[in-house]
Amino acid sequence: MNQKEISELKRRFRLGKNAISHICGCYVNSKKEIVSYLNEPLDRMPEEEAEKYLTLLKKALSGTLGRNLIDIVFSTQQVADSDEHRRLMALRDSKLKDSEVRQEFYQTVIDTLDMGESNYLILLAHDAYDVPHRGRDGEDRADEGDTVFSYIVCCVCPVKDGKPELGYCAGENEFHNSAPSQIVAPPELGFLFPAFDDRAANIYNALAYARKPDELHQEFLDAIFHTEPPMSAGEQREAFQTALREGLEGACGLEVVQAVHEQLTAKIEEHRETKDPEPLAVTAKDVAAILRDCGAAEPQITAFCEKCVELFGEGAALSPANLIDSKRFEVKTADVTIAMPPEQSYLVETRMIDGKKYLLIPAGEGLEVNGMPVDWVQTESE
């Protein structure tokens, strides 16, 4: 799926814009016990309440592709004959009306999901989207569409205790401490099945959601999809740094890291400006070209590429946003941390003076200490 396809579906999560008939789910306590079930017609809910449910479900389609939104790929064998794919298809094809299939799904989630001591709410909805035909001019023509995209969306939301606050008691004409209520927080994880590829159903793929890119809840993904678990954004960054350090064998200096950071940041910015709906990706060969421009030796570049194959797989396409922090550049020693905007990273350089290692930064004008302007005072050694 690309960003345009995701955005097209997200626009449906508004009142009067979808074909969702019921909101299904269950409330689970910290002991993995089902406290209550939910199976409510959307059109009979108060509008404000219905909008809140739709907002929660919509969140399962939010975030960045490759970070919060992870492509799940089923094998041909799984699609042909597997319990996990059969269960998802049964949920979709029954439009969530089969209570036994719903219960089996709930129990699978409850048995495997680790939410710590949190209570949580599992929400499910089915929608059937009459996909309008899109003309060459980019305009949708609803009366010319011949595709119906039938899909389910799921999200898991922590339920937290609200904070006790003072409240007005009309009968007593006084203010008293009000009891905290149970608050449904934004979803921690979720998924869409099947994928909406080329504006049609692709039962070989699903789209998983994680609020925190570094916490994908692998146990949940394995139980629901039973596919090779994807690397989280944090794991990808750590593996990339390992490939650089070990591949360059002691030549992974500040200038190399600056160059890699600068060029990957430039790719991210360019992709953002072009508004390309397809997710941005780079390969080990793309990074190798950057290393070559930095003057890295060919054996080191080869070693880096081989390490990438070992850690990511042959021909892996990686999101630059998972490899670097494009909004921050930080240099850290045992005693000092220096943080700066990425576009200013070129100001920092390493230098060996009288056998000692130094970080050099041109100071320019305007020296401050804890917000207080200070003067440059020349010492005798200068």
What's the number of domains? 3
Poorly predicted runs of 5 or more residues: none
State the shape.
globular
How big is the Rg? 26 Å
Q: Tell me about the largest β-sheet.
A: 8 strands, antiparallel
Q: In percent, how helical is the residue content? A: 25-40%
- Judged by helices, strands and strand pairing, the structural class is alpha+beta
Separation, N- and C-terminal Cα atoms: 62 Å
Number of beta-strand segments: 20
Q: Figure out the total of helices.
A: 11
* Average pLDDT, all residues: 90
In what range is the share of β-strand residues? Answer: 25-35%
Tell me what you see in this structure:
The protein has 382 residues and is α+β, with helices and mostly antiparallel strands. It folds into three domains: 3-225, no CATH class; 233-320; 330-373, no CATH class. The chain has helices at residues 3-10, 47-59, 76-80, 83-93, 99-112, 218-225, 233-248, 254-274, 284-293, 298-312, 320-323, and strands at 22-28, 34-41, 69-73, 119-131, 133-134, 140-141, 147-161, 165-169, 174-178, 182-184, 189-193, 195-197, 200-202, 205-210, 329-332, 337-340, 349-353, 356-360, 368-369, 372-373. Strands 1, 2, 3, 4, 7, 10, 11 and 14 form an eight-stranded antiparallel β-sheet that branches. Strands 5-6 form a two-stranded antiparallel sheet. A two-stranded antiparallel sheet has the order 8-9. Strand 12 and strand 13 form a beta hairpin. Helix 9 packs antiparallel against helix 10. The longest helix is centred in the last third of the chain and has 21 residues, at 254-274. It starts with a helix and ends in a 9-residue tail after the last strand.
